[in-house]
Write a structure and sequence with these properties.
Elements (H helix, E strand, L loop, with lengths): L6 E3 L5 E3 L3 E6 L2 H5 L5 E5 L5 H16 L10 H16 L13 E3 L10 E9 L5 E6 L6 E2 H13 L1
Parallel strand pairs: 3-6
Antiparallel strand pairs: 1-2, 3-4, 4-5, 6-7, 7-8
Length: 158
Amino acid sequence: MVTHSLSSTSNKGENIMATRGLYKFYSDTEQLENNRPNATIYRHWDNYLEGGGADLVEFLTTLRDSDFDNRFLDSSYLASKFVVYLAREFANDWNEEPLDFLSVGVVHNDDDWGAEYTYHIVSEIGVDNIPKVFVDSYNYDKTELSEAFKQEQEQEVL
């Protein structure tokens, strides 16, 4: 099992922390229950709900609202589309050097990446006509993402 450090060094030599996350793509809930994703994507930065969770919802709703094949029911292709989406977000200059990106990759499911958030995307249509999404973190145990957002909003009010 591979274990990775939770901190990185900026180009100024400062030690900075990352909120690491995994995005696991499943064909159905049975695969989810058995932790057997078809693809696992690692994202290094900003995986808390307001970052990675919101980006995931934006990605899925953008696909839902598009005119092309969204591949919602094909978890492997959906994961591939998500890698491209994240690569575009993290590329230094997408138009000139689209392959010049870090902070996202396809990883083995069994490795320990120090993820503070894990998003489970199931290729079954759920709320808002997008695939079902659940989140694991210190505060959530395979909680539906929409419910986790509601709980976060309630905490802000308190």
